[in-house]
Write a structure and sequence with these properties.
CATH architecture of the largest domain: 3-Layer(aba) Sandwich
Mean pLDDT: 83
Number of domains: 3
Strand order of the largest sheet: 1-2-3-5-4
Largest sheet: 5 strands, mixed, barrel
CATH superfamily of the largest domain: Cobalamin-binding domain
Shape: elongated
Radius of gyration: 36 Å
Order of helices and strands: HEEEHEEHEHEHEHEHEHHHEEE
Length: about 425
């Protein structure tokens, strides 16, 4: 007897389904009932397969970003090759966290017992509108909490030598930022706080890094990435990251690699720049400005000392002339007063010169601390070609060429055996 026969005797329902048959009927019912429908949700757990298909979960979030609905979805390779250029033209890309409206076919696959959405089309206008809506909601929430200008109230040091760098380690943004600081010749100290800058982990990791930055002893924070589509930059429009920037105890400089749009993180940062390199250039310029200001102050102090001494001498001569014209008794009394006053003036001038000289010496030591000599003393060196040009790339010198290497206490001349 066939246990799965639809003619099973004694079955009050007139038959028993096999699993595959029931699955097939569910599949048919879903296809007939829904056909092609539009559904909105957020992309999560995106996976790109070697065969070109894209698998992900389409989720709906409720209050506090809690997931209240979730369906498996797929974009077959052929559909993706058609959809991707449309997204690109609107500055978007299929990525985790992307809020989208898509036309789907609802399908059920009996062998796996899985309901799945087959994405046929994506509405990029909806995505742009959703990103704008979330952005405005975030800005409104920050304004209500009084956080829009909170980070700009932080004090930026005149000489910010210790920087906390928040970015993805090894990325182009990471290398561009550090290269610009190194080439300046100033003794910057950089503490890297690695964080994903796009994808599902970006919000949490960036916020965590910003919270940790003040504990490093840094004087400011550089939050940078190498640009991307609007959807790639979605994390920097999120409330989590925006609040982390606004509430950071250090001034935050952003360089998120976009030429046109301003993210919410840019809006609440101490100052926003277009690229990571621009952030580094600002820090270098600030140190150069500080160094220049110290040079000016030193010159003013020196001039002030000379002027004070000259004025004291002129006053002494003037008093001497007036006293010589006075009566003998007055001259005698005046001479004593003149000498006392002259010594007081000279003493005051000398005291001011000594004070200003001490200040100048302090400034000089600070300037020296910023110079390359201190860097050389820590074990670094500068290598030049015979012509004096600094060697920045091993490929720029040839075998047999003479080079000179400057260290903290002298210069070493050598010959290249193999570049």
């Amino acid at each position: 007897m066939d246990l799965f026969s639809s003619e099973l005797d004694g079955d009050p329902e007139g038959g028993t389904y096999t699993v595959s048959r029931l699955g097939a009927e569910i599949q048919t019912l879903l296809r007939e009932a829904y056909g092609s429908v539009w559904v909105a949700g957020e992309v999560q757990r995106l996976t790109a397969r070697p065969n070109g298909h894209r698998y992900f979960e389409l989720v709906e979030k409720g209050e506090d970003d809690a997931v209240v609905g979730k369906l498996d979805a797929v974009i077959w390779k052929g559909d993706f090759l058609r959809i991707a250029p449309v997204l690109t033209r609107h500055g978007q890309a299929l990525a985790e966290g992307l809020a989208m409206r898509c036309r789907v076919a609802v399908d059920f696959y009996p062998p796996h017992g899985r309901l799945q959405l087959h994405v046929k089309e994506i509405d990029p206008v909806f995505t742009l509108g959703e990103l704008a809506r979330r952005r405005e909601q975030t800005l409104a929430a920050l304004a209500k909490l009084g956080l829009l200008d909170a980070n700009r109230a932080r004090a930026m040091p005149d000489l910010p030598l210790h920087v906390a760098l928040v970015t993805s380690e090894g990325s182009a943004a990471y290398h561009d930022f550090l290269a610009t600081l190194r080439e300046s010749g100033y003794g910057f100290r950089v503490t890297l706080l690695h964080a994903a800058v796009q994808g599902i982990e970006a919000e949490r990791q960036v916020a965590s890094a910003l919270a940790a930055a003040p504990t490093t002893g840094a004087e400011c924070v550089a939050l940078v990435r190498g640009g991307g589509s609007k959807s790639d930059l979605a994390a920097f429009d999120s409330r989590v990251v925006a609040m982390a920037v606004a509430e950071c105890a250090l001034p935050v400089l952003t360089g998120l690699g976009h030429e046109i749009d301003e993210s919410v993180a840019d809006r609440v940062a101490w100052r926003a720049f277009k690229t990571p390199t621009k952030v580094a250039e600002f820090l270098v310029a600030r140190l150069a400005e500080g160094e220049g200001a110290m040079t000016v102050v030193a010159a003013k102090l020196a001039r002030a000392g000379r002027v004070a001494t000259r004025r004291a001498e002129e006053r002494r001569v003037e008093l001497g002339t007036r006293l010589r014209r006075a009566a003998p008794r007055a001259l005698e009394r005046g001479e004593k007063e003149r000498m006392v006053l002259a010594w007081r003036l000279v003493g005051a001038a000398r005291g001011r010169v000594a004070t200003e000289a001490a200040r100048l010496d302090g400034r000089t030591r600070l300037v020296a601390g910023l110079g390359p000599e201190r860097t050389l003393a820590r074990g670094f060196s500068i290598t030049r070609e015979a012509s004096g040009v600094i060697v920045r790339d091993a490929g720029s010198v040839a075998a047999g060429e003479r080079i000179r290497t400057t260290v903290a206490r002298g210069t070493i001349t050598s010959r290249v055996e193999e570049p």
